[in-house]
Structure formats: C-alpha cells, structure tokens
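Researcher: Next sequence.
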Amino acid sequence: MTLEQQLIEKKYYEMFINEHVEIHPIHVLGDAYQEELQKDMPDLSFIRFAQGEVYFQNKDYEAAIFKWENITNELEPWAKKNIADAYYESGLLSNAEDFYLSIETDQLILNTEVNLQLFSLYIERGKLDAAIAVIKSTIISNPDYPNVTKIARSFFENQQDWAMPLNWR
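Model: Next structure:
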C-alpha cells in the first residue's frame, strides 16, 4: 500500500505496528511516543498523526482532533483534512467545511479527497450549487481519480441534469 493510500484510508499508523499486531495500537504508539521523547531532538508529529488515526477509527473524534492539531511536518495538510473528517463525522458540518476550505496544498490526491468530502458535505447541507461547482472542478483537475466521474455522473443523473460535458459520459 502506498503512503498516499495509507493516508486516504487512515492506516498510516500500521507502519508503527509491524510485528506488534497482537498488542493494541494505542499501547504500541504510546511506547513509540515515549521512545521518541528520549531522543535529543524528538519529532513527535509522525506518532501523533498515527495516534489520531487510531482515535478516529475508535470514534474518539475529540482525541483525534487534539493529536492532529499538533502536526507540524509534511503531514500537516493531511492532518487538517483528517480534522475536517472528524468534525464531519461528529455532525459539526460548519467546522468541517471551514477546515476543508483552509487546506492549501499542491498535492493532487489530497485536493481531490478534500473536494470529494466537500461535495458530500455540500449535498448534506443542501448547498447544491456549491456541490456542482466542486464536483465539476474535481473532474477538470483529476478526471482519472477512482470513481470520480462515476460519482459525478450519478449525482447529475439524480438531479436530472443532462447538461454534463460529453467527455463525462
């Protein structure tokens, strides 16, 4: 599994588990955290990111958000996306939208994932014009992303909007 796929599926933490599959991930990550603290210049961001994923998977969104708020390395844009996901799962759609919109990155996959989440959020909030704009933008920027054209086609068919560009059919 690629790093990007791990980040999408929130399985980055599995890199820390390795041969410790019989031990709960929180315990393994706690040990890794303590070990990292013993270094002269500890970098806890990677471990905190992984801890956030485990909390998220166990529906402890508050703890996950706390961990992801402290990410200051190259995983920071993904941490922001995950914070938005946690707000979304908690039903705090306005907070989720604010976080999704605050993400600035040139990573095409991350941008696509954020846009797909925004698309779902806008539909849920009844903001159909915003949903249409974001899905069209996503198709233009990354038409080969898995299922993105299928999602768009299904949405426009459900809306009985037959004015899709011909290359989407």
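Model: The first helix runs from residue 3 to 9. The radius of gyration is 18 Å.
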